[in-house]
Design a protein that fits this description.
Strand content: under 5%
Order of helices and strands: EEHHHHHHHHHH
Shape: globular
Number of strands: 2
Oligomer: single chain
Helix content: 55-70%
Largest sheet: 2 strands, antiparallel
Radius of gyration: 19 Å
Number of helices: 10
Structural class: mainly alpha
Length: 301
């Protein structure tokens, strides 16, 4: 799973009211800073992601590899991380002022900036998943030592052969990935925004970037825990089959068979590393994105 897919984008604009944006991050800056920051996080936290994926796999943690080969699939993650994060931020930063303008013109929740952020983020996720999902499928196969997944090229060939069509099984799980992101954002964003307001009120001045990162990390931890069942379904659907090699048909099939064969507890496998990974990732990503953005802004704008 791409770490950056479930981290609140940092506030890159200054506002005079709930919807009026006065300063926007340039498209190219968002593209470059988001890409580099995404790669930084995914590479740095990759071992935690591997542990989480193996815990969620139908064959079980130890049969999926345990703690051996903890960096298997790193190449696939690194290759897809930069374009996925860059695509997300370019769409997010482009749409955010446009949505804010529409809110103001048509009075669509004009005093609710979270609506603007969530709308832009949802569109960004939909586009970014065009890169993230194939990366996730390949990476998950390699992380769990699946048959025909010993090397990156072999894994790509194996996944493409699993289904008919030009892309084969590369986009397996695209729908459930989006379905995971929507409730995640609906939980994380209100917590994030409210925490910033309360913290600012407590200290009588606006929160700093580090404090805002802490708010996002806190909201992300709660959202990560709450959406773990969807993440388990996503992981298993991407892996393609259960421990006996019987293919999964869709997300509903994964859910029914997992509940019947392993009980409801299986839907929360990997919750500890998932919460830790997203919480830490929020801080790392926020700092990296802001640092790279500032360097680019100061050097070229």
């Amino acid at each position: 799973e791409d770490t950056t897919a479930e981290i609140i984008p940092p506030p890159n604009t200054t506002t005079n009211n709930a919807t009026a944006t006065t300063t926007a991050t340039p498209f190219l800056v968002s593209l470059l800073a988001g890409g580099v920051a995404g790669t930084t996080v995914d590479v740095a936290l990759f071992p935690i992601d591997t542990v989480k994926t193996r815990l969620q796999s139908p064959q079980g943690f130890w049969n999926a590899g345990g703690f051996r080969g903890i960096y298997r699939g790193l190449g696939a993650a690194a290759a897809g991380s930069a374009p996925g994060a860059a695509l997300f931020f370019s769409v997010y930063e482009t749409l955010k002022p446009q949505v804010a303008s529409l809110q103001s013109q048509h009075e669509w929740l004009p005093d609710n900036p979270a609506f603007c952020h969530m709308s832009a983020a949802s569109a960004g996720e939909a586009m970014a998943c065009l890169v993230r999902v194939p990366t996730e499928v390949i990476k998950s196969k390699m992380q769990t030592n699946a048959v025909g997944a010993s090397t990156l090229s072999q894994t790509v060939a194996t996944v493409r052969a699993e289904s008919s069509g030009v892309f084969g099984g590369l986009y397996r799980g695209y729908g459930i990935t989006l379905l995971r992101e929507i409730p995640f954002a609906l939980i994380q964003f209100p917590i994030y925004e409210r925490a910033k307001v309360e913290w600012s009120r407590y200290q009588s001045y606006p929160v700093s970037p580090i404090q805002a990162a802490a708010c996002g990390s806190f909201g992300g931890a709660i959202a990560a825990a709450a959406t773990t069942p969807l993440d388990v379904v996503k992981t298993r659907l991407m892996l393609g089959s259960d421990k006996n090699g019987v293919p999964y048909r869709n997300g509903v099939d994964v859910l029914k068979r997992t509940m019947a064969e392993e009980g409801s507890g299986a839907l929360f496998r990997g919750i500890q590393p998932r919460v830790m990974w997203i919480s830490i990732g929020g801080f790392v990503f926020f700092g990296a994105y802001e640092s790279y953005k500032n360097v680019l802004m100061n050097g070229f704008y």
